[in-house]
């Protein structure tokens, strides 16, 4: 069990007793957890019909993709709950009841938004660029024209939870929010450690690569040491285990390999055949259509001349930029 050391003080994991207390922290920190391009709607209404009834903890409207805003059902959970009989069953009910309750969902979301001046103003500004006439029409499109998607916010990601999520046909993202306290008797002295929603997309947009336009991305660049690169990228025509937001899966058409020092360059790329979950993890494996093609090395420019640091994790770019680049700076800047 890990602890945190902050300014000489040891913080230990805090175990939540009540889900509603954990949920209050989620709501309080929604902007940080889900990003500034989103609206969290803290509303609990029963959806479904007959024996298939459920009550989501909330909804998220996400504008990370400028031309493809999306609606997510949110479930806030504790890792102490059984992921199979509790979380898995709840998520299955969401998937079944969502479309049948579309009109009801639209009705209460619309009522909540128009009654909140901040939410309404934020969404109205987004709709101007989308050429959508009003919030009513907007909700109609994201509820009925898109498949249901979900987010599970949990205090600790476990192997059992990952296994359950991997069995779902509904695209589901997991956000981890861990809490640590210096004194279990004094919750006012606490800190959070978290993995934000769509962390790879947010890192891309914050880096201002390609102007932060995630819509243009079609290529993922992965770092690899010499041994792993030769054995897997070149030898097995695939790469794993990569953390990718589910909303990016259909957008990635190419993969490029950056060989770490002493090579320090992108040396090969391949067209993507398919992307699948990697074993019983929350990561993915990318299969190539054919053997990776060798290219003129796109080398890292050493500082102080170079603007781009060596990739430490997967990064996004475009195939067009990759083909025209002469060095690593030109791939990402």
Q: Could you give a quick summary of the protein structure above?
A:
With 333 residues, the chain is an alpha+beta fold. It has eleven helices and 17 strands.
Q: Detail the poorly predicted runs.
A: none
Task: Decide which structural class fits the backbone.
Answer: alpha+beta
Q: What does the average pLDDT come to?
A: 91
Secondary-structure element series = EEHHEEEEEHHHHEHEEHEHEEEEEEHH
Please work out how many helical segments DSSP would assign. Answer: 11
Main sheet overview: 8 strands, mixed
Radius of gyration: 22 Å
Beta-strand fraction estimate: 25-35%
Helix share bin: 25-40%
Q: Ends: how far apart?
A: 40 Å
The tally of structural domains comes to: 2
Query: How many β strands by DSSP?
Result: 17
What is the approximate shape?
A: globular
In words, what does this structure look like?
The protein has 333 residues and is an alpha+beta fold. The protein folds into two domains: 4-197, no CATH class; 202-332, ph1033 like fold (Roll). Helices cover 32% and strands 30% of the residues. It has eleven helices and 17 strands. Strands 1, 2, 3, 6, 7, 8, 9 and 10 form an eight-stranded mixed sheet that branches. Strands 11, 12, 13, 14, 15, 16 and 17 form a seven-stranded mixed sheet that branches. A two-stranded antiparallel sheet has the order 4-5. It is globular and about 60 Å long. The chain starts with a strand and ends with a helix. 32% of the residues are buried.
